[in-house]
Amino acid sequence: MVKNKNIGGRHHRSATCKTKKAGSQIPSSKDDIPPDDPADGDIFAAPPELLTTSQGQLGFPDRVYLLASVIFQNNHLEKLASHRLVNYGKEKGLPLPEVKDEMQHTAYELAFNTLKYQELLEDIMIDSCFNLTQPLPDDQMSLVAVMLYDLQDRKFLPRERQGDEEFVQEVRDVEICLLRFKTKLAASLARCRIKHDLLTIECILPESLKAKQERSSSLPLYAWVNALKGSLDEVRIVLKSVGLSQVKSIGQLKGQTFCQDPHCEDMLVFPAQLKAELHSTKLLSDHKLIIQDKFCSLGPNSVCSLLPDEGDVLMVGCFSGLTVSHTASLIAEEHKANVNYQPTVYVCVSNRTDAQREELQQVVTLMGCKNVKLIPKVFQSLDSDEKQLEKVSVILLTPKCSVSAISNPVEFILQENGDTDLLQDLSQDSVPQSKLKALVAQQRKDIDHALKFPKVVAVVYSTCSSYPEENEEVVSRALEQANADSEQEGEPKKADFSLSPSPFSTPHHAEGPKETDSFFMLKPSEQNNGCFLAVLVREPEPVVKEPPQEVLARANAKGILDRIGPNQPTRKEHHGHSNRLAKATHARNSQHHLSVSIQSKSQESRSSNSAGLCGHQEFGNKRESPQGKAKTLRLYPSKNSVSSSFSLPKKENTSSFSSSPKPEHSTPMKTTTLHPAPPPASPVAPVVRPRRAHQEVLKPVVLVLPPVHFPNFFPPQHSRAGYSPNLNYNKWRPPAQTGPASRSSGSFKSRPFF
Prior knowledge:
33% of the residues are buried. The protein is elongated. It has three domains: 10-204, no CATH class; 296-538, Vaccinia Virus protein VP39 (Rossmann fold, 3-Layer(aba) Sandwich); 575-754, no CATH class. By secondary structure, it is α/β, with parallel strands linked by helices. Helix content is 30%, strand content 10%. Strands 6, 7, 8, 9, 10, 11, 12 and 13 form an eight-stranded mixed β-sheet that branches. A five-stranded mixed β-sheet has the order 2-3-4-1-5, with helices on one face. The chain starts with 47 loop residues before the first helix and ends in a 49-residue tail after the last strand.
């Protein structure tokens, strides 16, 4: 677990230790220092003004110097042999000695400062002839450089020692040599400052590096609220209870105040000096409030906004257990109402040691996260075929980068599991082109592989670099490559990715990108470190509109439209065709009601010359028994209507139509209403309902009706001899009409019979 530790250096040393008198600051007895240097006879008589310094604790434990020297040895700048006057030995890549966690940060900070002033420290040793007169081997010169920087930082005062401090003989030997030579070393430092006209030694640094160093001392504290341990409102109440007041913007932070971050709603910002105050509230110890750089919170917030209801997250790159916990807590809180599925955060930890994996798991457990799973595989070997990754919808990619946009790189690298090999380049604020190309090559591989997951809907790419080669150029090139591969492989356009607008909006009082920007970028300032973030989303599958000819062809192939094609003749052109009767059967079955005009055979001769005569009906001259076959009915549809021929099923004691023959002396014609027949026993393919055409004169159509029983219609004496036209048909009364009658002709209106 990464704890909050004090970083080494003059500004971070504890102010609780009191400065002892000159006589009590002796690192060892006078006998331990060789008396062969008369110029250093007054080494214990420090000026009175130096004894009242407010630097705090003077010096560090022996183990800190030892670890810092190994870090410096592995990362120092090697000069050419012809220009090398101070030799540090040829060994590099030495294993780091184990120290306590609180000592590790201090040692890295001390080594980083020594790297920044390596050129100046070497000039001091050469000018004072320390490297030539002191009998120290080359492999101890790294320890000399580290302790010399600390010695000049505390004005060449002897360090204070704790009673239980671990004793390291190698460190004590170098310390004795430096203290014996401290007067000459101080004089050499003064000559170097005069030579380069340096008001302070910081003036020898590059302007960009000086700006970073100044910004790092004023950076505010960023802390996100752990939703699994507490709420934002609960944290605000606790902060206000200890005297803190909330302001509107970061620019208003002063004294006992805090504000909400303009981009991340779950993040609060505090002045740097309130760190001790936050510890006193127990919000940090209870893991309700987590101090972490703002850059680390942008990725988790983006992922949470992009994740669908049933999707998982895959995290790849350099990040700490705090970043994993932040992502997991946001997702768990966002999807807590989904009882059917809880998203999982998969973490690729192939580049971690066993100790680092164990530490990450401990941090996740302490934060209360239960939806995190570690994958000990190389990211390049993972694909969508992995069973546990089949629901991964969003990938958070934070690759190894140059960390060039971070003002406090040492603290950031250690907290976020960064690359310590970058310390030497960061100490000079210049990354060699060869190393930058290697970083970019790896970043391209990672983002290219992330875009190959077919079920991934979004990839969040985030760096803390200020180089366009690691930011815009990598993303643009990855999009071009992904789309080009999609076209070459013949994949559909749905595999294309595009840039999504910035997921973070910027209020009017904050400086940052506009909401419509494709990339989210923050420049390093006194309020925040720099960062870059891009969201690549998969374009939705395009809707392909099939031409009407292809739709009809597919429908005809399946028998849906009964071979109706785009070149089929119109209804008028198709009039009289022999196949028209069969097609009309399907069209008539799709209608709910059918009304036709029928006239009996006896009325046909008298009404043939009447105006508006347009209907004719013909019954078969052969009478069937109630159990006989269905009767045939000929109808006369309109000119443009589709002809039909259908059979009505049998139904005892009922009739599917109603008729009332007209007496001989009657001139007007009456109509008969037919109700639709039930669907046939055999399934009929669905048809498209034709548009109702203009109604014109009816034409004959053959309708096969089911047998109708007339128990009282024909007397027994006439059952075999045919029927007589003089029978009283009015004795049989049709049932009342139950539904509205549709009109099949514009010349006649349906009306009920009595």
